[in-house]
Amino acid sequence: MRIAFFTNCYKPLVNGVVTSISSLKEAYERKGHEVYVFAPRVEDYVDQEKNVFRYRSVNLTSKVKYPLPIPLSFRVKKVITEFNPDIVHIHHPFLLSSVAIMYGKRLGIPKILTLHTQYEQYAHYVSPIPERVTHEVIKMIISNLAYKTDCITTPSISMKKIIENYGIKNRIEVIPNAIYLISFKEDDELKRTEIKKKHNLKEDDKIILFVGRIASEKSIDKIIKALAIIKKRSIGKEKLLIVGSGPAIDELKQLARTLKVEEDVIFAGT
């Protein structure tokens, strides 16, 4: 089977959606299927894998390095025609979704939409547009796109409920994101000792670990507030190790200072 992925973000960007798309592509290819990725160009990045088409792109906001594709290309028609996909898989409801729907309709093949994200949580990045307006626009775009697809998938039950609350009547399937378990099973005592030494962690410290992008929609502030509550109730040895980078680092550092847990919250970077 030949599958065309249309996504507004792909490597070298590091985020949950890229990880999910990459894992799915690799899994399909291990099963003998072919996948062609259509994604925005990222400045100074050269693809090392085959079957990736890059659209010209622009950065919409300076808050986040997130190049957005310009859904116009004279070359893409030839690439899609030669690849001749059996399915079009759309990974975002904006921008490249319109191209994907057009080619899916033209080729008479199924069109699948995956909604990876609760987009309302990202409304604050689109300044100076009021968040309330952004929420309504997101709802309208997703609803208008939904009826043009054959099936919607989403990784969580909570996201399925949000889609249903939009009034969308399409077939909706919950397909959790896959996890590469081997990465979590590696046991390297030397590396573990080095990390603890680097961040001044004791053997009997109880480590709470967060790994991901440091942004407000990740609700890391709730973990810091929970840690402060624990510290008030006991003389525990809990430490919060935050691994990653993002626009909310300064805000979270200030929160840790305000709650007087700055000694127990470690920002390890990437």
TrEMBL record:
Short name of any one Pfam family annotated for the protein: Glycos_transf_1
Limits of the Glycosyl transferase family domain: 192-269
InterPro entries per record: Glyco_trans_1, Glyco_trans_4-like_N, Glycosyltransferase_grp1
Record-level Gene Ontology MF annotations: glycosyltransferase activity
Domain Glycosyltransferase subfamily 4-like N-terminal, residue spans: 14-179
PANTHER family named among the record's database cross-references: SULFOQUINOVOSYL TRANSFERASE SQD2
UniProt protein name: Glycosyltransferase subfamily 4-like N-terminal domain-containing protein
